[in-house]
Amino acid sequence: MQWDDLKATGLQVQYLKVCERKLWLHSHQLGFEDEDDKVQQGKVLHDTSYQRQKSKEVLIENLIRIDMMDKHYVGEVKSSSKMGQADKAQILYYLFVLEQMGIYRKGKIHYPKEKRVDEIELTEEDREAIPKWLAQIQQIIQLDKPPKKKKLRYCTKCAYYSFCWVGEEE
Ligand code: SF4
User: Fold this and answer.
1) 13 alpha carbon – ligand 1 mean position (Å)
2) What is the pTM of this model?
3) Mind listing the pLDDT tens digit for each residue in 85-95?
4) Which member of 2, 7, 95, 106 has the lowest number of beta carbons within 10 Å of its beta carbon?
């Protein structure tokens, strides 16, 4: 895969797995996320839980922002494991991008509130799937209008909840 083909951020990969409409709204910078409590909570958690962690946040080509990285692992900190599949996709994408750069790591997702750490390893299947995710992201964000809303369990926690649902019949 060419470096130029890697156009998605980690957040876009995560949103692809959560809700295609959210991916579109976020990518078109219709951002309410800074005002969202859950996001703020996540930031606070991130700032306080790992203050003593020696490894630093790593930003690569403005594309991926990794919470922690050492010789063996990259790590992400999440406030809850409810979005486990989306969290996993995000970190798999990080591992994939690093691998394109000749950097080989495993991943860890830390859920400090649950005292849980999930280990993630990139498989051959993932290496085949990830370029398809990236193509899907490009297709979605190039749509003229956001994809139709779908009532998901996640909606009430989403930063776009008011935008999508306030005033609608439940
Ligand atoms: S509120 Fe629901 S439908 Fe709307 S963007 Fe968020 S997750 Fe998607």
Assistant:
1) 15
2) 0.81
3) 999 999 999 99
4) 2
